[in-house]
Amino acid sequence: MSFDQVGKNRQGGMETDWDDSGRQEERPQPFSFDETTRPVSTPGKPDTIPGDRETEETEGTVEAYDPGSVTIEAAPDLKEEEFSPEGEEDLEWYYQRGKQMTVLRRLHDAVEAYQHVLALDAMHVKARNNLALIYDNMGLFDKALEELRTALELDPRNIEVRANLGALLGEHGRVEEAEREFKRALEVAPEDSRIRFNLGLVYFRKGLYAKGIPEFERTLSLQSDHKEAFYYLAQSYNLTGQYAKSMELFEQLIEMDADNYRAHWYLGMLHDRRREYDRARQHYQNSYRIRQQTLERQEE
Hints:
The protein has helices spanning about 55-60, 90-105, 105-120, 125-135, 140-155, 160-170, 175-190, 195-205, 210-220, 225-240, 245-255, 260-275, 275-300. The chain is an all-alpha fold. The chain folds into two domains: about 1-205, Serine Threonine Protein Phosphatase 5, Tetratricopeptide repeat; about 215-300, Tetratricopeptide repeat domain (Serine Threonine Protein Phosphatase 5, Tetratricopeptide repeat, Alpha Horseshoe), CATH 1.25.40.10. The two termini are about 30 Å apart.
């Protein structure tokens, strides 16, 4: 629920302790315990890379909001024998356990831990936010939506929760609602690059490429190394007929990330359009080679 702000320990897009500053890497966005963004189709989407499931399925996917570091400092190694009669009512113990179980991918145990937190304190916004993201990871959209809406009722100005709500709605095709939530989040945090980026993705998904361009440009002005913003801005220029700008951005992206097979592929298409067939062939070949190497590494 794939953004960048203050945060200390965050796993899979989950809010943990928001009192230290933290930085986030652009992708995988969001939830490092799995990355809960789901593939969606895009009206008027650009040509996809043949045989590439990633571009065929995920073009324009709204990303999860992640204000903190994608890789979190693991919660303490809590052991069952540490329980005591008093400890069983220790809210912080269960909150830390919820984080730890999430890191270990024991999601049902994490749900149980956060539910125990909420039984002790129904107004614990962080626990509700984290619980919602786990529910979404488990495919329980309605439960995730309920927890985020309840968290917002408790803390209407919490941009992490609101942005997660926007991303959740966007992931499930409710793009009008997602757009509204991102805009409301920007009223509170207009300089948040991740919210700007996700709003741009909402416009991209709706086929409003020209409307998304300013959001991607603003994202890059706030976070100059945001590779996904480079990619979607280049695609938006491409889809609005601004081919020279698109080529320039894809070239910059390849300078930043030489193994970005998507950038190579679409840059090849743009050279094709200009009848620069040798350069197009080179980028196509690079794209195919990089993609195959990636698949081979995944199979090892």
